Amino acid sequence: MADWYLIVGLGNPGKEYENTRHNVGFQVVDELARRYGLTFGKKERKAVVASGVMQGRKVILAKPQTYMNLSGESVRALVDFYKVEIEHIIIVSDDLDIPLGTLRLRKEGSAGGQRGLKSIIQHLGTQNFSRLRFGIGRPPGRMDPKDYVLQAFKGDDAILAAEVADHAADAVETWLTSGIDLAMSRHNGTTENVSRPQPTPNPDNS
Q1: Which of 29, 49, 51, 128 is in Cβ range 3.0-4.6 Å of 108 for a Cys bridge?
Q2: Alpha carbons 42 and 67: distance in angstroms, whole number
Q3: Which residues, including other chains, have CB under 8 Å from residue 148's CB and lie 6 or more apart?
């Protein structure tokens, strides 16, 4: 049987948290599900999941329902149940220390203050898994970061966030088909600088 790939978007469950900065991970896996006609139709291992085939790989898309700081409980349970290899895991999360409009993929590393990643590292017992950080920028003035991450994107920020989510889904597809190294070289950076596949020229449009 083919190996499973686990793509986890981090966020908080509940209507009140939809479209907030902390939930960009959910937004990215939702975009991937849309592209491949997958449905988040069931809850298992403390996550809402969708499974199917993407780019010829058997995948599980997961949105943990434990709240951010307990995300590792769900991820560990999914890894154990589906017998997912560490190199077949990618976690999508928000990052306060990266400007909005920027993606940063890494093959390993610390949590960097992101509580969902911290929980996953603790429960997996390793930090050697791929992660895609979705920059949301620092809060303005003296706003508490806890309040900032739970605010919804508005105006131009909402437009940019949607564009970045699309690019992030592209990055996950590259990781899935070609590995983390190519995904990093192709997609790390701002939305203006990432290398996206170019459309094939139409010979009829000369």
Answers
A1: 128
A2: 18
A3: 21, 96, 138, 139, 140
CA distances from 96 to 89, 92, 161, 174, 206 (A): 22, 14, 14, 24, 46
Question: Which of the following CATH numbers is that of domain 4-190: 3.40.50.1470, 3.40.50.1760, 3.40.1170.60, 3.40.50.1110?
Answer: 3.40.50.1470
The ranges assigned to domains in the chain are 4-190
pTM of the entire structure?
A: 0.90
Residues 93-146: pLDDT tens digits? 999 999 999 999 999 989 888 999 999 999 999 999 999 999 999 888 888 988
> What is the tens place of the pLDDT at every residue in 147-187?
999 999 999 999 999 999 999 999 999 999 999 999 999 99
Mean pLDDT of 43-64: 96
pLDDT at 202: 41
Question: Do 63 and 11 touch, CB atoms closer than 8 A?
Answer: yes
DSSP 130-181: EEEEEE--PPSTT--HHHHHTSBP-HHHHHHHHHHHHHHHHHHHHHHHH-HH
Tokens 């190199």 map to which residue?
A: 87
Q: Residue 93 belongs to what H/E stretch?
A: strand 89-95
- 22 catalytically annotated: yes
Which residues, 6+ apart, have CB-to-CB distance to 64 below 8 Å? Answer: 8, 10, 11, 46, 47, 70, 71, 73, 74, 75, 116
**pLDDT tier, 205 (very low <50, low <70, confident <90, very high otherwise):** very low
